[in-house]
Design goal:
single chain; globular
């Protein structure tokens, strides 16, 4: 998984898989979801990220452990 914030375009892009993008749909204004040829979600793009995300320059990553 990879996340990139482009300050110049104010776009936050998250790639969930290395699979090739076959289709992209704008689910809501400014929220684009990418799908592979099997229909699996492989990416997410947030336009105008600085207005939609509390801090696009910070990311917290946690791994939950089963108890």
């Amino acid at each position: 998984m990879k996340a990139v914030y482009d300050q110049e375009t104010d776009t936050l892009t998250m790639r969930l898989s290395n699979a090739q993008i076959a289709e992209s749909d704008e689910e809501k204004p400014g929220i684009i979801i990418d799908y592979d040829s099997q229909g699996n979600m492989v990416g997410l793009e947030i336009l105008d990220a600085s207005r939609r995300v509390s801090d696009p320059l910070m990311m917290e990553f946690r791994v939950a452990h089963a108890t």
